[in-house]
Amino acid sequence: MLPDRYRYIVVKTSLARLLSERLNGHSLLENPGANPFLPLFYQDIPRYALSTQLFFLFHRVTQLQGLAQLDMFNKLTIADFILDKDPLFARLTLNDDEFRLYHEIYRHVHPQSPRPDLVIYLQASVDTLIERVRRRGQPYEKNISEHYLERLVESYSRFFYHYEMAPLLIVNSDNLNFVDEPRDFDLLLERLTQIRGGREFFNLGT
Description:
With 206 residues, the chain is α/β, with parallel strands linked by helices. 49% of the residues lie in helices and 12% in strands.
């Protein structure tokens, strides 16, 4: 059981589902398959980046507005996104003019939402990400390039290096499989009970 101070946790999708099930929490999950522009984006990033990004932005804003209606003090909420990270993808894929337009929209629609009590960053190498994409077998992901994943890993690392909005646990997930290995998941749960705040790290065997 996690300490009571955890009411709102953010982590990647597969682990968010597992934590919600184990801890009887409310899950706040994205549905990438609902974005009609996403398959087109992976085929032609420059053409479809803005429409893809705006669809995700409005979807995330709607979810966070709904979050404000939940009784978060009585129900643990586990989400698989933070809106503060949304501009990361925009800067990665949009040209300068599109990014200025996106940022103006982002600034106007950004809701007042609760800050997470904990953000879990699952750090992974490009090779690990490629293997995970392959295992997921999502048709719309088959055109993801290694170059795009390299830029994504670099952007994630830079974002979380400077992230100070909430307590942060950085997990080296290259040798951890929380979905298929119950022992790995139990190790992470145990680590979560030991967090004191600020920025902490979790590596297999440490």
